């Protein structure tokens, strides 16, 4: 149905228009019955619906409907599977239609700057390329059902401490390369119906009233077409926010801020055109849902099985010494730890789902498996109980193998606050150490929303990172442990050895200003560039089979920055079990045009292979794959020169390497002045000849290298020293060292600036 939105807006009173720009209550938008504008509902839902009635509170649980909890983002991103994430989105979109929800508040794509952020379980990755690709797939899935998404939290929302007021202090290059791209990719590949702005300030301006963020970048640079809503309670100055590009305030302000909008229009401080445009944008999304309403059955049992499948595709096998896994039904196995019976499968806060059904690993093992259970330690607190421990140690000693279900209790990580350390509860580490004294054949399954320190890593034989597996995660764990499923997840974040290794360690958390001093060196970009030991690198994950990569082909080894480069590689299953491998493509800039990370992920594909089977995987690179953000150009810049294309199965396991020479059509702007160095002039083809002339006169004036020089002088002023001094010699110094006058240099500089 084609609607004339401008006509509808023109028929609204000023008060009705202002009212449309804030919620009716916590979850509903306002309606205007006389104009046929319906009331619609939004709901939390990055990994499942949390639908509440109009009396619900943003963080509460009591009024939520029974629903399906899919694996949270911390786990699902480890699937490295766009198609799987699109299917998950499609299912959540159908669930939203079944429950008359018009907008799902998600996905959350903020970068995992520090392992301590209390909300990391809701975020996809430390890598903006992976986060953007996964988010776009999810959004396309949800919106295929005419249900909107609200990608969040825009932007630089990377901690919970003082999240409603602190200022994220980051330079533009860092924002453009690390904290913006996941949002940008989502706009360009999926066009989310709505954006949710974050609570925090960015460089001193609240996101909710940041025109550069909400209008210049989001709409101007990326082409966003939907509306922007506030995070719940994120509005600071409502009129300023509306002018900046914040269309919808959530939740209701009980008319207070609506009245400010009305007053601003009446006194002329706010143009009514701005208000009209905001209302039109909101109405377009309301009718997109209302005109495509498709009531259907809420297929919870079917969706539960899909949640299990997603968990199975995403869990990461990190260690498997001596092929201790998969377990055999004939083996006597002891399951130890409260999480075996009561798994922690989702995080706390606004995304918490009221599940209709929950599975655990203990009840999900094969019917003929020989499994005994000892609690050992509780799942909900850090308490070492001597009796429980003694029972667990006895069970461990009597078994062939032990699986310890460890992890973080709900109280250790949640929305609203950040972790203070990266350790597991001490009771768990203590019992693990005791069990290892009597049973070397030990496997650990982790239930956590973000990395933990692993003090026992060298002493165990198996490690399965289950993260938070959603309501069917227990079955997924059992199916992987017993080989019904071959694990294929890859880490979407680096697991550092200890907290202090993290690049944000000295600049995370406290204070009203949080300085992002690590710049673009986040996650593996930092660890790999520093060649620092980590527990497990980004992109890492084992399988019960083995794979080989071969025959790297590059479609164009001398592209321009306007060309697309196709990279293909053959992948072979060299083992005896069907499985999936994730091929990862990294780019290394060898041009020295800027300080850049050692390598950056620019492509990935997940491929299924039967034993002995080979398939060709292809990935495409464009200018952005090679570029960095240049703040002088206010654009992405890919320098001419050599780039390495690195194909591997993690950021630290590069199997194949190729090279290209990029021919760029861009040039960096150059303005020559008195402090421009001779080295800078040498490196620009347009000024290099003049640099040679200036240097020749400078060398001659300094009388360096003459035969008459004494031996002592030659030792004092070496050729290497002369080259280095010349490279960093500012033009102004040629008055003292080159015999030039200021007037001569001014004239030379004018000529050089005409050349560049």
Automatic annotation (TrEMBL):
All copies of domain Fibronectin type III-like, residue ranges: 581-651
EC nos: 3.2.1.21
EC supergroup of this enzyme: hydrolase
Any GO molecular function: beta-glucosidase activity
Alphabetical keyword list: Glycosidase, Hydrolase
Pfam families per UniProt: Fn3-like (PF14310), Glyco_hydro_3 (PF00933), Glyco_hydro_3_C (PF01915)
Cited SUPFAM superfamilies: (Trans)glycosidases, Beta-D-glucan exohydrolase, C-terminal domain
Gene3D superfamilies: Glycoside hydrolase family 3 C-terminal domain, Glycoside hydrolase, family 3, N-terminal domain, Immunoglobulins
InterPro entries attached to this UniProt entry: Cellulose_deg_GH3, Fn3-like, GH, Glyco_hydro_3_C, Glyco_hydro_3_C_sf, Glyco_hydro_3_N, Glyco_hydro_3_N_sf, Ig-like_fold
GO biological process terms, semicolon-separated: carbohydrate metabolic process
Family: Belongs to the glycosyl hydrolase 3 family.
Protein name in UniProt: Thermostable beta-glucosidase B
Organism: Blautia luti
Gene: bglB_3
């Amino acid at each position: 149905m084609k609607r004339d939105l401008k006509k509808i807006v023109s028929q609204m009173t000023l008060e009705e228009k202002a009212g449309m720009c804030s919620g009716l209550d916590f979850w509903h938008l306002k309606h205007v019955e006389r104009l046929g504008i319906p009331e619609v509902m939004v709901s939390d839902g990055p990994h499942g619906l949390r639908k509440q009635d109009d009396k619900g509170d943003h963080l509460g649980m009591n009024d939520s409907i029974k629903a399906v909890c899919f694996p949270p983002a911390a786990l699902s991103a480890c699937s490295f599977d766009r198609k799987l994430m699109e299917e998950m989105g499609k299912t959540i979109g159908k669930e939203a239609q079944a429950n008359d929800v018009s907008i799902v508040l998600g996905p959350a794509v903020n970068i995992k700057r520090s392992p301590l952020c209390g909300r990391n379980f809701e975020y996809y990755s430390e890598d903006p390329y992976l986060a953007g690709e996964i988010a776009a797939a999810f959004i396309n899935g949800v919106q295929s059902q005419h249900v909107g998404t609200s990608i969040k939290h825009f932007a630089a929302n990377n901690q919970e401490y003082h999240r409603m007021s602190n200022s994220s202090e980051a330079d533009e290059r860092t924002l453009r390369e690390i904290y913006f791209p996941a949002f940008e990719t989502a706009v360009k590949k999926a066009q989310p119906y709505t954006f949710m702005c974050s609570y925090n300030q960015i460089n001193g301006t609240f996101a909710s009233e940041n025109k550069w963020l909400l209008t210049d970048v989001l709409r101007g640079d990326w082409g966003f077409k939907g509306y922007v809503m506030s995070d719940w309670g994120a509005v600071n100055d409502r009129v300023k926010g509306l002018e900046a590009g914040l269309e919808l305030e959530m939740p209701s302000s009980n008319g207070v801020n609506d009245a400010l909008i009305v007053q601003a229009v009446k006194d002329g401080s706010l143009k009514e055109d701005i208000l009209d445009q905001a209302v039109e944008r909101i109405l377009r999304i309301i009718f997109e849902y209302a005109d495509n309403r498709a009531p259907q059955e809420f297929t919870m049992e079917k969706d539960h099985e899909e949640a299990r499948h997603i968990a199975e595709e995403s869990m990461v096998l990190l260690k498997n010494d001596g092929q201790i896994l998969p377990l055999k039904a004939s083996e006597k196995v002891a399951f130890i730890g409260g999480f075996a019976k009561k798994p922690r499968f989702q995080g706390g806060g606004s995304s918490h789902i009221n599940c209709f059904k929950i599975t655990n690993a203990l009840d999900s093992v094969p019917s003929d498996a020989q499994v005994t259970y000892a609690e050992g330690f509780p799942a909900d607190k850090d308490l070492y109980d001597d009796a429980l421990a003694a029972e667990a140690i006895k069970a461990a000693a009597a078994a062939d193998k032990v699986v310890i279900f460890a992890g973080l209790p709900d109280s250790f990580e949640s929305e609203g606050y950040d972790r203070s350390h990266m350790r597991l509860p001490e009771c768990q580490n203590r019992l693990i150490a005791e069990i290892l004294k009597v049973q070397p054949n030990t496997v650990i399954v982790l239930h956590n929303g973000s990395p933990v320190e692993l003090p026992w890593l060298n002493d165990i034989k198996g490690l399965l990172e289950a993260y938070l597996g959603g309501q069917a995660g227990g079955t997924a764990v059992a199916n992987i442990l017993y080989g019904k499923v071959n694990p294929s997840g890859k880490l979407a974040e680096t697991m550092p050895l200890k907290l202090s290794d993290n690049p944000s360690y000295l600049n995370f958390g406290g204070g009203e200003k949080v300085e992002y001093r690590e710049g673009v060196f986040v996650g593996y970009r930092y660890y790999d560039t520093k060649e620092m030991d980590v527990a497990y690198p980004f992109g890492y994950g084992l399988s019960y089979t083995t794979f080989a990569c071969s025959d790297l082909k590059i479609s164009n080894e001398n592209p321009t920055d306007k060309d697309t480069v196709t990279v293909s590689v053959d992948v072979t299953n060299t083992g005896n079990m069907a499985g999936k491998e994730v091929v990862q493509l990294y780019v290394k800039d060898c041009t020295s045009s800027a300080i850049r990370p050692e390598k950056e992920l620019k492509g990935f594909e997940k491929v299924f292979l039967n034993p002995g089977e080979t398939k060709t995987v292809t990935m495409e690179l464009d200018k952005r794959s090679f570029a960095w953000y240049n703040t002088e150009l206010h654009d992405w810049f890919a320098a001419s020169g050599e780039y390495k294309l690195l194909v591997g199965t993690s950021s630290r396991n590069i199997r194949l390497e190729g090279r290209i020479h990029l021919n760029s059509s861009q040039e960096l702007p150059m303005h020559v002045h008195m402090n421009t160095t001779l080295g800078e002039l040498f490196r620009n083809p347009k000024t290099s000849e003049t640099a040679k002339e200036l240097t020749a006169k400078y060398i001659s004036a300094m009388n360096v290298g003459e035969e008459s020089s004494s031996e002592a002088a030659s030792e004092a002023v070496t050729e290497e020293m002369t080259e280095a001094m010349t490279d960093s010699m500012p033009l102004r110094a040629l008055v003292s060292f080159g015999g030039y006058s200021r007037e001569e240099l001014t004239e030379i500089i004018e000529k050089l600036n005409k050349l560049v």
